[in-house]
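Are you able to produce any protein sequence you like plus the matching backbone structure tokens because I've never seen that pairing?
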Amino acid sequence: MNEQQHAPKGARRTRIGLAMMVKTPGVSAVKTRLAKDVGSAAAEAFYFCSVSVLSTTMECARIRCAAGVEVVGWPEDLGIELHPHFAVMEKSELKNPLWSKFPTLWQGEGGLGEKLDTVYSSLLGEFDGVIIIGSDLPHLGEHSVVSTAAALGSNPGVFQVGPTDDGGFFLFGGSTSLSREVWESVPYSSSQTCAALLKAIEPLGPVNLLCSQFDIDEGCDLARLQSNFGALLRHAPELQAFQQESWFHATAALRHQGKEDVP
């Protein structure tokens, strides 16, 4: 960022819609691949904790933007308003108390491509830019969200994409309209997901790639989170919520004993 990109005092603030894609446990199955490795109870407990941690991340990012970017280390306020939402899979659960912290919107019908299109286009109709995140990367950290929002404010024509180590993506940000066909052209839950997304959007505008991250899909991913917990905690202090969870310590203990499955 350079100083010429900072918003002058009194200027209109750029409004960014932020949505976390969520499912409602007990209504829809969650973390089924993780459950095969650590058991359904631990997998569901992880999901609840991850959503809670990421909700804190979203709220902290909102507060940072509202307070002015100088809080994050930039010399002036970039003029960003961040508006967190839950994008809920089930239309019947939009008023579920689980999702009461932020406004909700329905993901809509169809496959994941159609759902992402619904969420992105709905929020882009209300805000200047949109950031979409998943619910299975609790170590995301507020800086990743704030810096993405700042990038959308200063360079609105540039797409922001966060790739995952397994070929997917954990974050998408943009201010440019996309057709449903773009979203549907991507093979999801594939090692080629992010590559296909980039191929689809690169003709429509430049892309900025965030640092690659790992998300939690399987037991080996949870083990990686546990093994690197100290370093990740420095990046995302809100992860400390996991330290209060007995299942988190139990799965780590069993991993150290060489056991693969947790009942």
Notes: The chain has one domain: 13-252. The first strand starts at residue 14 and ends at 22. The longest helix spans residues 40-67.
